[in-house]
Write a structure and sequence with these properties.
Distance between the termini: 21 Å
Shape: elongated
Number of helices: 2
Keywords: Membrane, Transmembrane, Transmembrane helix
Strand content: under 5%
Largest sheet: none
Radius of gyration: 17 Å
Structural class: mainly alpha
Helix content: over 70%
């Protein structure tokens, strides 16, 4: 059961890392369609980095939980 949660957490975390920049940049391009090129503000960069960081934390914690589930008391 622990491995199921660990695998799900890893998949969700990895998806956040991959999808966050694409989704946020796409939303920015739609909201600033009046200009030729969308410009990144400092807040946008922090938001992208924060979501990716949370995804990395979730994926890393899930990988550690997966590996720790193999440890048996002797």
């Amino acid at each position: 059961m622990i491995r199921l949660f660990a695998a799900a957490g890893f998949v969700v975390g990895f998806a956040l890392v991959l999808a966050a920049p694409i989704a946020l940049l796409h939303a920015m391009a739609d909201s600033r369609a009046v200009t030729d090129l969308p410009t990144l503000t400092q807040g946008d960069v922090y938001l992208i980095a924060g979501v990716m960081g949370l995804g990395l934390l979730l994926a890393g914690f899930s990988a550690i939980m997966w590996l720790a589930s193999d440890i048996r008391p002797t």
